[in-house]
Amino acid sequence: MSEPAARPGPRSAALFERARRFTPGGVNSPARTFDGVGGGAPAFIDRASGARIHDVDGNAYVDYVGSFGPMILGHADPAVIEAVQKQAAKGLSFGAPTGLEVELAELICDMVDSIESVRMVNSGTEAAMTAIRLARGHTGRNKILKFAGNYHGHVDALLVNAGSGALTLGIPGSPGVPQSVVDDTLVATYNDLDSVAEAFAAHGDEIAAVMVEPVAGNMNCVPPVEGFLEGLRALCDDHGALLVFDEVMTGFRVHPACAQAHFGVTPDVTALGKIVGGGMPVGAVGASRRVMETLAPTGPVYQAGTLSGHPLGMAAGIATLSQIRGGAVHAAIEPRLDALVSGLEARARRHGVPLTVQRAGAMFGLFFTDASRVTRFDEVAACDGAAFRRFFHAMLDHGVYLAPSPFEAAFISRAHDEEAIEETLNAADAAFAAVARG
Ligand SMILES: Cc1ncc(COP(=O)(O)O)c(C=O)c1O
Ligand SMILES: NCC(=O)CCC(=O)O
């Protein structure tokens, strides 16, 4: 067999040249750019199957991006593809209700304890946007408290100290968002209850909601410290604010019943995305029936969407969640992630590279640091960015695809079998050696 082309390769490079001419930065979402890892052409993808994605130059990669989270079953899962193909043959969109929307709503309400009623939208951003409008409309208050390094999509009011691409590219607040729109946004420190208590002490009766990623996944992977989510719940209860979990990333990934089940803390409102659409553009907002009926047409808070509840998205979501529901997907993933994490730690040690791995359910993150635990944003920011960049490129060269940023969580799927893990660890051995060489 011939050696693979240099990665990404000449076809990706040519597509990138064309893309840059017609699209800002050549990408349709900044999280895909390689600007945070030294620039250059990203791999342009041709197809994906199971644990692997294949680029246009014929390179295969074991994939830990998983479309930034949705692909927990692995790419091109046969049941999901079949459901979408069958539905596509019936017509794409109707602007009138379908049984598929009912079926997915019933599945979500059945799987997630805090959700009795759900509204489908088209992305995680829309879910977050709807969640805060709902919270404001329901409480009659305006202020939203969020956390530095958390990301809730590109919602104007939440695009302050945001994680993900904004963090990777050093954009703390976005031009185009008027100051007046963020005057009601309060920013606290993730995993620091005192910072939240201070905000409540100053603005207690003005805060409509606390918006939090229950596991912070847009500043690498930072699980909540003991008592943090419980403390948020108590502060919200004491002050009449709603607790909103942004489970766009963690929903159905950290646990089959979402992070709220894993940590045993019940939010008032949940934003969903990614896995709920099985790889199609779907988001959802869920809560108690009483809170949800604040939305039009039962209530006065307006929210709408031409393509909301899209039949293809609903079909993919149903085919995905119905496989997750019994717990078998997570049960299959756990020992694989155990093997991956212990294998990575052992190889980093062998090469003398300081590494800490953090995980929650089927997501994880690598921190190039001496610290044994990373819980705060400033500790994430203090990790060795140069080491990450070297590691990222060496992994890519050895056929493993990671997100091109030290601030993105990594995602494993049911399709990551022993062979994929072995391949990843072999690549990591070479990559840690490259990091150690400096
Ligand atoms: C926690 C979280 N919330 C919201 C979003 C926004 O979702 P989307 O990109 O689908 O708009 C994302 C990811 O993008 C996310 O990780
Ligand atoms: N953690 C990053 C994301 O979840 C979103 C990716 C994107 O904005 O393209």
From TrEMBL:
Catalytic activity: (S)-4-amino-5-oxopentanoate = 5-aminolevulinate
Main EC class the enzyme belongs to: isomerase
An example Gene Ontology biological process: protoporphyrinogen IX biosynthetic process
Enzyme Commission numbers on file: 5.4.3.8
Principal cellular location given in the protein's record: cytoplasm
In-chain residues carrying the UniProt-annotated modification N6-(pyridoxal phosphate)lysine: 274
Coiled-coil region list: none
Keywords, comma-separated and alphabetical: Aminotransferase, Cytoplasm, Isomerase, Porphyrin biosynthesis, Pyridoxal phosphate, Transferase
Subcellular location: Cytoplasm
MF GO annotations: glutamate-1-semialdehyde 2,1-aminomutase activity; pyridoxal phosphate binding; transaminase activity
Cofactor: pyridoxal 5'-phosphate
Summary of subunit composition and partner proteins: Homodimer.
NCBIfam families: hemL, PRK00062.1
Protein's name according to its UniProt entry: Glutamate-1-semialdehyde 2,1-aminomutase
